[in-house]
């Protein structure tokens, strides 16, 4: 038995020793790799600066430089160093637009090569385009078509990078095609990512909104909601179109909720009766629509709005009571108009309204201080 125990102990010590050796080798290789990459970044910065100087002198980017880009950037590790070099130059205020345009053909050729690589490599190349768009997006080009092809058999991370690259390139057709493919393949992409990405679009946002809106009856609700959120953040000329959708019975709850939030940002008087009807629950609507309607009504002051919000304070849903109380306070309702609630027998209505009044007061005091 003693021999067996010793054997186990020696085996354990051997494993620990081997793990220690492995970690030491890994740390050494990591440091060496970092030094190599830092050296490559410095070399790329020097090379790019030289080409930028030629451009300022009225010359073109050297063919030898383009050949070097074509050969070395086909390797993802070299591309990482190159991107870091461009980032460092940009942080120092160096303008790279003309340099990137001069190298458009090379970058397009690299895109073809990366289309044959693994999803992670394609994702990084798309990130490179996102950070360094080599064109202004006026025309739909093969580069955009190649980037869109990256989305096939890829990860969510890769698709997100491709979309960001297309937003950066600023071409409406490119974004439209990408969204169409997402819809056709029924890929899930979080609407928050989609709407936030659309807001960064580097082209004509009005045109993009109009083009994407034409697909409202064809696309998945997730895509349509993201388009509505994009419109809400950038445009205010969809009042009549959104109002008609809000009236439609065949429109999903998610789309109606997004439209209601649009009308919270942009006042449009004809929508007030619909919001009041939702809050009064005249048609037994979804609870979430009542909750959002209570929030939106803070933009629509009227006696009927105040009375409807006061009635909502007695609802059993805490979120509805909270939004109704918030809207009443934000409407700066005269205390005499809410005495019946504060002095009433409904404890929950009194508590939420008193709490919101106190919070409003404290915020006012902080701002005044």
Describe this structure in words.
It is extended and about 80 Å long. The chain has helices at 2-56, 63-72, 76-91, 97-102, 104-114, 119-131, 142-149, 156-169, 172-185, 191-199, 205-213, 221-234, 239-247, 253-265, 272-280, 287-296, 303-312, 318-330, 339-342, 347-368. Helix content is 73%, strand content 0%. The longest helix is centred in the N-terminal third of the chain and has 55 residues, at 2-56. The protein is mainly alpha-helical.
Features:
extended, 369 residues, mainly alpha, single chain
State the gist of this model:
The protein has 369 residues and is mainly alpha-helical. It has helices at residues 2-56, 63-72, 76-91, 97-102, 104-114, 119-131, 142-149, 156-169, 172-185, 191-199, 205-213, 221-234, 239-247, 253-265, 272-280, 287-296, 303-312, 318-330, 339-342, 347-368. The chain starts with a helix and ends with a helix.
List the helices and strands and how they pair.
Layout: H1 2-56, H2 63-72, H3 76-91, H4 97-102, H5 104-114, H6 119-131, H7 142-149, H8 156-169, H9 172-185, H10 191-199, H11 205-213, H12 221-234, H13 239-247, H14 253-265, H15 272-280, H16 287-296, H17 303-312, H18 318-330, H19 339-342, H20 347-368
Helix pairs in contact: 1-3, 2-5, 3-6, 5-7, 6-8, 8-10, 9-11, 10-12, 11-12, 12-14, 13-14, 14-16, 15-16, 15-17, 16-18, 17-18, 18-20
